User: What shape does this take?
Amino acid sequence: MSIRRLPNSLINRIAAGEVVERPASALKELVENAIDAGSSQINIRLEQGGLDLIEVADNGCGMTRDDIALALERHATSKLPDEAIEMVATLGFRGEALPSIASVARLTIESRVEGEDGWTRIVNHGEVESDAPAAIPPGTKVRVEQLFAKVPARRKFLRTPRSEYAACVDVVRRLAMARPDIGFTLTHENRKAIAVQGGESGPDRVAALTNKELRANSVAVDLVREEVRLSGVAGLPTYNRGVADHQFLFVNGRPVKDRLLVGAVRGAYAEMLARDRHPIVALFIDMPPELVDVNVHPAKTEVRFREPAMIRGMIVSGLRRALDEGGFRAVQRPAESALANWQTEPQAPDPQTSIFTAQGAGGGRATIASQPYPSATAGGLQANKSPYGAINPDELAPLMGRAEEAAEPVPEAVSHPLGIARGQVAKTYIVAEAEDGLVIVDQHAAHERLVLERMRKAVEGGSVASQALLMAEVVELDENACDRLEARQAELSEFGLELERFGPTAMLVRATPAMLGSGDVKGLITDLADELGAYDEALSLRERIDHVASTMACHGSVRAGRVLNVAEMNALLREMEVTPHSGQCNHGRPTWVKLAHGDIEKLFGRK
Assistant: This one.
């Protein structure tokens, strides 16, 4: 077969295969054109998820009659005044979108420049149907109908209207997030899905398009290095999601999905999130256009940096610094579903009789509080007619318990963000009173994070102090596990863990990190071997060290089920207040929650 030139109609359909993959792709191109036109308000309307109709109307600069005709030709654009494509500052620049869309759909363009007459042109799958004057306000309105109607091979590969609509919402959300100075509305099937006003601040726009709770559960990111600036908001590690659909990354105002950036975000949250959880972030990178190449993907969703290592390092260090400044913060209040689990006790049918009143010897009533300590022989208690049934006096012992006598005056809760310890529940949770509510702390999760941060700090300062075992302990493992531990013997010694090979299937433990105290040595060595086996090849040296430290910290922390006295509980709270990342444990779970006074009042029907 001889080589031939392809007709323009076929060229446009081939280009449409790259640029117009689905309705969301066409919508993205149209909204980007509206942004580049200098609009302050963009209104979008969809039918059937964009399969039947996509309409984008803006109040931008508009186009003349000749410009409309030229815009529908391939590689015609107003966004490249010269040949310096590396200096492009607009979202669009290829000049392929409109002719590509017009080749696979019915496209209507209405536009008017301020002070001139409006004009409309209709192109039906590559053929001009109409070219006439139009009475419209200044700006541009583009309608795309019957997308892929005459290309059934493409149409049948599209997903359901619901799925296509979700993709369109994601496109608009990302573009609206990049430009908080522009107002956006998105209407689908006559229902408004997105409505944001122009002139908002960046954090306000991000919260409006994701979740309003993000403002209270995030930290600001701001880092400048040479000519590059990183800004945005980062959700607290405890404020996360099960999928990575709430990670928004922008380069010079352009939404991108770049593996380098996504990997950097994941690295920044390492050891603060469980492996199946994902952070919520919106990061904006502003840099000179010559330092980034945006012309590497037809849909312009990927970029290439001149110095990718520096950009990755900025994201990791910027996020880590912001999260460090967040300190002990965690999600500020329990979820509504958790609050809904609180139940009120059923009221007794006889309000005159309850477990707090007892029959006196003479048949009269007396409150327990007014009597001396009850005894098992107090027959009157057995005769109590409480609706809860007969009460065993031994079961009342907890009611008679006395608070621990304070050796010194109890400090005021005002000066401590996590409050003052008031007690321990289930030998696991510390209950503290703060100025603005009730704080509940998971003692194991909190101490686990504190030990990890101490160990990291000790490693950075030189080495972790070790404590020799009185008698070296032999831990039997399989041969592969022993090989992994032996290969990392030098690294483990930096953490104060001294090991040596003891035959083919055993390791001899001579010393453990002093800060871990006396614990389950066998369990520690077994878990370390498992960690190294699962992640040794995939992780960098620094990430391996974090995994080792995390595993050791878990074994060296205060276990659930250990009774703490008031001084120990307060010491734990004070250390949490000054330790970075203490709002979440090493696995990403929150270490504390707060019931604000308003939440408590709701539980008791006072509010």
The mean pLDDT is 79. The CA atoms of residues 111 and 361 lie 96 Å apart. The first helix runs from residue 8 to 19.
